[in-house]
Write a structure and sequence with these properties.
Number of domains: 1
Strand order of the largest sheet: 1-2-3-4
Order of helices and strands: HEEEEEEE
Radius of gyration: 15 Å
């Protein structure tokens, strides 16, 4: 391994958003529960940052910025979506697209 990262333990009975948004999702006609794997598929940008969703409802942006082989502090930045992830993020030059369970899409550009 070049480096590894492990988020705080998640003890929910289901992935984030499954209980809180069940009725909202059902009313929209979307998937009512997510039931994903613990982690989504990861993508890596040209600078080496890793983008990966976790069942705690966060997408983590992880990079060993100081090159010491350990991920600490701000080198693992969580972005709270409030829902787990079934699929992978999409990445293109200057663009990142994230689609968490329950619908919706977030797009970032440099």
């Amino acid at each position: 391994d070049i480096w590894a990262y492990q988020p705080a333990p998640f003890y929910g009975p289901a992935c984030a958003g499954d209980e809180e948004f069940y009725l909202t999702r059902w009313g929209k006609g979307t998937d009512t529960i997510c039931l994903p794997d613990s982690w989504s598929q990861a993508v890596i940008d040209a600078s080496g940052r890793v983008f990966v969703g976790f069942m705690d409802g966060h997408m983590y942006v992880v990079a060993d910025d100081d090159g010491d082989g350990e991920i600490t502090g701000s080198e693992a930045r969580p972005i709270d979506f409030g829902n787990g992830f079934q699929g992978t993020q999409a990445i293109a030059p200057g663009m990142l697209v994230v689609v968490p369970c329950g619908g919706g899409m977030s797009v970032w550009r440099d």
